[in-house]
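quick one, two chains, predict together pls
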Amino acid sequence: DIVLTQSPASLAVSLGQRATISCRASESVDSYGNSFMHWYQQKPGQPPKLLIYRASNLESGIPARFSGSGSRTDFTLTINPVEADDVATYYCQQSNEDPFTFGSGTKLEIK
Amino acid sequence: QVQLQQPGAELVRPGASVKLSCKASGYSFTSYWMNWVKQRPGQGLEWIGMIHPSDSETRLNQKFKDKATLTVDKSSSTAYMQLSSPTSEDSAVYYCASGRYDYFDYWGQGTTLTVSS
């Protein structure tokens, strides 16, 4: 199985500043010209919400403050600027290989 | 709008099977994969498997091959996941999530399954 390692496990960012979350895959998640890495936001008591699909594509309705980048094994989710509503846990997920796997999550708090 | 309706909670005795439901509306049920995801309290997300409602093609995480069975009822646009011989390790929130093959656009609110005598 592809293991996704997220870092940091938690971070505290001041309002209006940049938050950067990393996701490293144990092997490449690239195929057919796509990177099969996706990002979700989960707030307490709610289901996850898709933010970014295939590494860098912003899901409809998601603010442009969210962006994704990366390829092969190294991926980044950036939130800039951070707003109070962004307090949540963020997960990466790969779908290049069965079984699909998720990272362990990064908890974002406001400093 | 797209909705995936799941019961909020289910209680099952250890060893008795349970069938969780997910009723879809607001989109073409047979056009998108339906996934199931497990989340234990305070833990991360675990993909159980997915089924395509058009032909019931199923992809299952091998970890759950003896635990979960995925089915659909096209007539009612409902997906089901049956869990066999549940134990305390199966107590969790179970989400259904629809989408294209590789990512999950829409999620249900989740069913909290409690395995207890």
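Chain B touches chain A at residues 37, 44-47, 59, 61-63, 95, 97, 99, 101-105, 107-110 (CB under 8 Å).
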